[in-house]
Amino acid sequence: FSFSWQTTFQDGGEEVEDGAVYNVTLKKVQIQQAANKGARWLGGEGDQLPPEHTIRQYETSKIRAIKAGTLEKLVENLLTAFGDADFSYISIFLATYRAFASPRAVLELLLDRFGNLETSSHGEVTNLNSLESEMVLRAEIASVLRAWLDQCSEDFREPPDYMCLLKLLDYVKNSMPSSDMENRVQNLLKQFQNQELEAVDGFCSTSSSDLVDGEELEISNPEEFSSFQDHIVAEQLTYMDVMLFKRVVPYHCLGSIWSQRDKKENKNLAPTVRATITQFNAVTKCVISTILGTRELKTQQRAKIIEKWIHIAHECRILKNFSSLRAIISALQSNSIYRLKTTWMCVSKDILLMYEELSEIFSDHDNYLTSRELLMKEATSKFANLDSSEKENQKKSQKRLQLQKNKGVMQGTVPYLGTFLTDLIMLDTALQDYVEGGLINFEKRRREFEVIAQIKLLQSSCNSYCLIPDQKFIQWFRRQRHLTEEESYKLSRETEAAADTNILSPRSQKSMVKRISTLFLGADVFTPPKEQPPKSSPVGGSSGESTDSASVSSCEFNHSETEDVCVTPISSPEDPLKKGYDSDKSSIGSDKGSGSSKGAGCSKGSISDLASGPDSGSMPSRDSGSVLSSAPKVLPVYNRQSGGSCIIRVSMDGLHANVYKSILITNQDRIPDVTQRALLKHNLQPDAVEDYELVQVISEDKELVFPRDANVFYGMNSHVNFDFILRKKA
């Protein structure tokens, strides 16, 4: 017999149980069956029978995927998911449950509620005295525990008591004595107990506490920096990035987790993400220090250092290290470096073209479509896929790539983590945590897992790297004293006086700066205090993109937190004789703290502040009382009204005017509702609604003040940035 299958899926609606709602899909499989022998005698070609001699059979199966439920139902579903043909459920749950439950709560439900056969009411156990039923249940629990230890063993790292791990060990000793599971749990406990408390490796930090005794931080010696070959620097930066990225715990990136890090009690929250951000900052600041740190450098010498960093960025591209690549590009586009017109004019044309091509990777056109597609393409390839519009650069790239291939070692891919943080924060802002009846919205977790799965894929690819640390470079990198924002700007002004800063921007400046303005959509944004030398505004190009003109801000570093990451707009001082640009005229915006500026040429982003989402660890107003529905096909976004909703950014006037919070609003929301949510986001008392007024920033000198009970969605100006200020009434 020969068989062929044709599968179709049909929406089966919803099934509602006590404490859970399921999506049902009907899977219909058509099986064609034919006797091969004698097929030709019956007029069939090859082994195919004519239609009248083909047997068609249909098989229909039901796939149940939990859509929302109580914590107890979600945990129970871990044991029944395979039976419901929801094969990815366990992985999704384990990767995202920290957003709504603790490991202890899940483990207690799993072991006490379902693992205790004497009290269990698990639906599949019809006869508690049946040995077969007990074995089935224990096998299901063992399967879940095995997956938990495989995928998320860090969940059990709870020094010094390790309560969850001890509870698990007690269970497996009683239920699975002398099993591989018991040995595994014991080994994990010993491993945790023998290790020091989780801490970031010293090589990614630039604090003096990480230096060898007697060493001091120092400004880079240009000659020492020049002694390192470009590909060696790129390899060492990649080595450091790989070590940190592989340690990133995926759930630390969830919007509901990462957005809580600024609270006093959460200063140690998401350490693996903070470590990656610290390294990104260290690279960015190192670039600026090497260019500006030595006053005695001549213009040509300074241009050579810029050229060297561009070459290093190109080597990072060959190594598929998008994190350090972006950090270097960001530094070169910071105010202090970008304004050096005379220096940039000494950079060779070929290298400027290379710089522009590298910058284009991070264009925010179509929600960073270029970098996203490239990242996923590179994630599954053995080596970088290089393209260049300039023949000389193409030759150099292919030559370097061939050297990599000749080594015979596959490469991994190190992403720019901020892309994933932004996506997860946007999901957290746009989708409710809880739905009608107080049920946990698990559809949201499925959407989040799509992003988490990409992070895990890239982490797995990083195992392909074979890089050896160069202690000489690492020690040099750790010794660098990073310039503060004020210092770097002052040195930049000394290098090229303000009278000479009528920077003529490259041909790509206008379009690219406009596109970069929507970087980190919907994320919290940090802007430096107004009294800082370089008048500036939101970090990370997050002032938004107006439909009328580019509205981009510029700034240097924020040193208030070590995890801030600098991200600059994608532009390049290539061909600096095209257009006029005065970086000294970029401004913070209006005196009202709009945080927006017109025509500025550089901006810089901070993952830690830009990638801050809503405070969604509990059940604020947006998470309750909502109607149960599947995730929208098009999520609400910043700066665009769609489907009766959108995302706005609200800052506090005065003390907190430098921090934006993203808020989802609908066409039903009025001023009191939005004001209350904004106060909650800024950790202020929500009952003080009457003391505040909400205004939309129209331009540097214009604001739209909303009446007390106005509908924000319909009342706002949709043709400018969706930036709002919450101000105390006079």
Automatic annotation (TrEMBL):
GO cellular component: plasma membrane
Domain Ras-GEF: 229-498
Comp. bias (Basic and acidic residues): 575-585
Keywords annotated in UniProt: Guanine-nucleotide releasing factor
Short name of any one Pfam family annotated for the protein: RasGEF_N
Ranges in coiled-coil conformation: none
Record-given protein name: RGL1 protein
Gene Ontology biological process: Ras protein signal transduction
Top-rank lineage group of the source organism: Eukaryota
Biased composition (Low complexity): 537-546, 586-608
One GO MF term: guanyl-nucleotide exchange factor activity
Species, as recorded: Grantiella picta
Residue ranges of every copy of the N-terminal Ras-GEF domain listed in the record: 62-193
Residue segments, region Disordered: 525-629
InterPro entries: RA_dom, Ras-like_GEF, Ras-like_Gua-exchang_fac_N, Ras_G-nucl-exch_fac_CS, Ras_GEF_dom_sf, RASGEF_cat_dom, RASGEF_cat_dom_sf, Ubiquitin-like_domsf
Biased composition (Polar residues): 547-557, 618-629
Domain Ras-associating: 644-730
Entry keyword annotation includes Secreted: no
